[in-house]
Amino acid sequence: MTPYSSFLFFIILAILLLPTMILGIMGKHLRYYNVFVSIAVLALIFSGGDEGFYSLVIFTVLQLVLIKGYISYRQKKNSSLVFYLMSFLSILPLILSKILPFLAVDNWASFLGISYLTFRAVQIIIETRDGLIKQQLSIYQLVNFMLFYPTISSGPIDRFRRFQKDEEKRWTPEEYKELLYKGINKIFLGFLYKFIIGYAINTYFIMDLDHIADGRFSYHLLYMYSYSLYLFFDFAGYTLFAVGVSYIMGIRSPENFNMPFISRNIKDFWNRWHMSLSFWFRDYVFMRFVFLMKKKKWIQNKMLVSNLGYVLLFLLMGVWHGLAIQYIVYGAYHALMMTAFNYFETWNKKHKRWPTGKIMTIVSIVITFHVVCFGFYLFSGRPFQ
Amino acid sequence: MDFKEKVLQVIAEVCEDDVVKEEQDLDIFEAGLLDSFATVELIVQFEEQLGINVPITEFDRDTWNTPNAIIDRLNELK
Asked: What is the ipTM of this complex?
């Protein structure tokens, strides 16, 4: 059963979470009962047969061995080679799951949520390398974090140390009531976004575009706008469910969206759209790449370093969505937009030609909106059909 | 120059703005003075000029957001 896709799922979830809410309001520890809920919901999600239950099990065991092994190793030594090898092995199942379909064999490596789970695991290895995780982690801690069901299928991607703080916490009744209120609020807003607005845009506009548009150009233009809005409401709606359910379980999962369509420039957009993913790439790919280049003094030119960082980040992000042409083009497009903006920003800092003020802010928002929508149009795959 | 002044000097150099020396509770990310690229520069400078090693993953925008907060965090790591 796909999470949050049917009302049956929500009804079962509500029944399972009722004791959590009662325990929370009484100020009791939630973690023990939550384990039971997690197992029950994971069984519900993965028992369908199409979601790759066995791949999930093998994947989890592999990640546990890698993480626990690396923490033990890191307590004694710290070789870069071992770090890169461990990171590669951790990402290997994800790479396989993307490549196998092209080899025309059964995609045995894939399961629901593999892209997101991989990032949760690799992140622990990176933070161990940086010396931020020093103590050995228990199997319970790791499994609980990696297989946290509310966010298993499509994120948001939480960070281990942040998750752990919430998980260990015993909320007071007042604190929990606040969380519960916010959680329920989010879930209902999610219904509005995904099942009302998103559904309406798709059913009454996108699927009816043949009748609405009066030419090829207007068809594609209207498709670009409506698909962008649909993508936002559908994904933001899902995220509201995931974060809302997390809150009810006492875990404040990070947000994914912060009004992305009012971004003033492309850089601002990536601080507002799919934030948990873009911040992951920012912290674990872009900044590490820049740091390495500066530290080793391999490339002196600042502009070149940051632009190469953007190209690396966005191409990886594109491929992460899948190896299909539209995702690679989408990544390349955003890499291009970011480097272009990088040049513009540096130039404008010197010459101050771009006027400031309310009207220019609106102009900037409108321009960014179109740049972003064209990106989603590429992402949709429609231009490549 | 004491430690605090040194840190402020490094931040001001990286941000290319002396406002951080006066307004020490200014959110440098919200003010647009620091982005992820400049953050890395700041981390490299802390290491080179102050000898303090800040892991990139430790530099969290919620707790390293103002000059005062950065001074506090660096004092903890010293």
From this structure: 0.90
Which candidate, A308, A294, A296, A299, places its Cα nearest to that of A342?
A308
Final residue of a structural domain among A168, A195, A212: A168
Domain hosting A331: range is 260-384
Q: Are A130 and B56 in contact (CB under 8 A)?
A: yes
C-alpha span between A292 and A287 (Å, rounded): 8
CB pair distance less than 8 Å for B55 and A132: yes
How do residues A328-353 score in pLDDT, each as one tens digit? 999 999 999 999 999 999 899 888 88
Encoded amino acid at A174, one letter: E
User: H or E element: which one contains B7?
Assistant: helix B3-15
Q: Sketch the domain layout of chain B as residue ranges.
A: 3-77
The C-alpha angle with vertex B11 and arms to B6 and B15, in degrees rounded to 5, equals 150
**Is B56–A291 a contact, with Cβ atoms under 8 angstroms apart?**
yes
A3 within a domain of the structure (yes/no): no
Q: What is the DSSP string of A321-333?
A: H-SSHHHHHHHHH
Our count of domains for chain A comes to 2
Q: Which residues of A touch B33 (CB under 8 A)?
A: none
- A164 and A268 in a single domain? The answer is no
* CB count in 10 Å sphere of residue A359: 9
The distance from CA A224 to its chain's CA centroid, rounded to whole angstroms, is: 22
* A351 belongs to the catalytic site: no
pLDDT above 80: residue A51: no
User: 């872009």: which residue's tokens?
Assistant: A286
Q: Which of B34, B57, B76 is the mutation pick for testing A, counting most A CBs within 10 A?
A: B57
- A291 with B39: Cβ contact below 8 A: no
Domain presence at residue A327: yes
Residue A214 within any structural domain of the chain: no
Distance from the Cα of residue A38 to its chain's centroid: 20
Domain range B3-77, CATH class: mainly alpha
Separation of alpha carbons A77 and A57, rounded Å: 30
Q: From CA A60, how far away is CA A139, in angstroms rounded?
A: 10
